[in-house]
């Protein structure tokens, strides 16, 4: 079996309940190495929960989630090590307000991975440059725009050298004029071959950067298709309905 034949992230018959609410229903999804998989769907359909389960921020009740073949849902899984391998960026940036951009990026590698101060700094400077922030390394979050803060958050996640990046509506809290700079950084990351699972309402991004679009509705995956096909000629009524509302 070649290494590329194992998906990076697999959801296999995943069910998740909050009390009586069945919010993920028999979800099967494979995210392949270097793939950009874009998850769309109405509010409340389970998109955030899907990502949160992948990072074990939420437990699942049945099924299995695997990272490169290793069950992350297993009771004996090393959660800290798994989380290092799964980078996550949220709608709210959650930067440490009293730390500079550079310190926000170096903190994880230094504390969790035990990387030396100099090495962490060097790598953080590279990462901040790669997200277009080489002139803001010493700024505090409060001195940065939302778009800049979100780019620091992306650099911070990348500093842990994850195998896959999860993005949950990372542009939803931004002023419209700042959305593009964050999507551009994500597009570059995709180009470099990062494996990405992206929840977004940005259909332009889904179309241009996505390798695959997954539509969720009421906790189920109702359609999976290549973007071109999904937007031009979706199979399901549910997808047509969704598209007619947003396009
Ligand atoms: P989406 O991200 O697609 O908007 P979510 O995954 O946030 O959807 O939510 C899916 C469903 O799960 C919704 O009905 C929501 O109300 C419910 N839900 C999400 N988080 C919790 C929670 N912590 N406790 C109870 N219900 C929750
Ligand atoms: Mg959500």
TrEMBL record:
| Family statement drawn from the similarity comment of this UniProt entry | Belongs to the ABC transporter superfamily.
UniProt-listed SMART domains: AAA
User: Care to name a GO molecular-function term for this sequence?
Assistant: ATP hydrolysis activity
State its location(s): Cell membrane
Native source organism of the sequence = Halococcus hamelinensis 100A6
Domain ABC transporter, first and last residues per copy: 9-243
For this UniProt record, give its keywords in alphabetical order, as a comma-separated list: Amino-acid transport, ATP-binding, Cell membrane, Membrane, Nucleotide-binding, Transport
Task: Name one matching Pfam family.
Answer: ABC_tran
Q: What's its membrane topology?
A: Peripheral membrane protein
Q: What is the lineage of its organism?
A: Archaea, Methanobacteriati, Methanobacteriota, Stenosarchaea group, Halobacteria
The protein's name in its UniProt record? Putative glutamine ABC transporter ATP-binding protein
Name the InterPro entries on file. Answer: AAA+_ATPase, ABC_ATPase_HisP-typ, ABC_transporter-like_ATP-bd, ABC_transporter-like_CS, MetN_ABC_transporter-like, P-loop_NTPase
**Which terms in the GO cellular component ontology are assigned?**
plasma membrane
């Amino acid at each position: 079996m070649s290494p590329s034949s194992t998906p990076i992230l697999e959801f296999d018959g995943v069910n998740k309940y909050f009390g009586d609410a069945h919010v993920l229903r028999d979800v099967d999804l494979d995210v392949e190495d270097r793939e950009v998989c874009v998850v769309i769907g109405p509010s409340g359909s389970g998109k955030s929960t899907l990502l949160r389960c992948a990072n074990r921020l939420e437990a699942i009740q049945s099924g299995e989630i695997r990272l490169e073949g290793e069950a992350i849902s297993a009771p004996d899984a090393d959660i800290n090590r798994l989380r290092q391998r799964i980078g996550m960026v949220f709608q709210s940036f959650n930067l440490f307000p009293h730390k500079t951009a550079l310190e926000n990026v170096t903190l994880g590698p230094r504390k969790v991975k035990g990387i030396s101060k100099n090495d962490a700094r060097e790598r953080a400077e590279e990462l901040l440059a790669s997200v277009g922030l080489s002139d803001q390394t010493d700024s505090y979050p409060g001195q940065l725009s939302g778009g800049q803060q979100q780019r620091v958050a992306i650099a911070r996640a990348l500093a842990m050298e994850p195998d896959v990046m999860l993005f949950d509506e990372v542009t939803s809290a931004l002023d419209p004029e700042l959305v593009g700079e964050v999507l551009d950084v994500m597009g570059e990351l995709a180009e470099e071959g990062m494996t990405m699972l992206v929840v977004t309402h940005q259909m332009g991004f889904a179309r241009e950067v996505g390798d695959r679009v997954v539509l969720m509705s009421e906790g189920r995956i109702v359609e999976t298709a290549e973007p071109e096909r999904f937007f031009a000629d979706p199979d399901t009524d549910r997808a047509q309905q969704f598209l007619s509302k947003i396009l």
